[in-house]
Write a structure and sequence with these properties.
With 104 residues, this protein is of the alpha+beta class. The protein is 42% helix and 17% strand. It has a two-stranded antiparallel sheet. A hairpin with a 5-residue loop joins strand 1 and strand 2. It starts with 7 loop residues before the first helix and ends with a helix. The relative contact order is 0.20.
Amino acid sequence: MGQAFTGKTQIVSQFLYDKFNCRYRQTVEELHRGEYDLPDGSTLTLDILDTSGAFQFPAMQALSISTSNAFILVFSIDSEESWEEVARLREKVCWRNKLKEFAL
């Protein structure tokens, strides 16, 4: 999660597909799936939701935060605004985890 133009899609592309695309293409929202064989013989299915940095739909962002198990927060080193957005997103994620702990 993070602002637009910070490289979120490139991180997913490199991690899952070992590819780097030099051209920018705006992401709306993309679901990627990777399946991995584990040493114990079981398999792990990893679903990665690549989100838009625009967050035009706050309800979608809230849903993504409430249903996810892990997050990668991405910012641009030359944009203070993107750092501030990551700080806001981190607060949302931490708040969600506090609510989950309280519910237990």
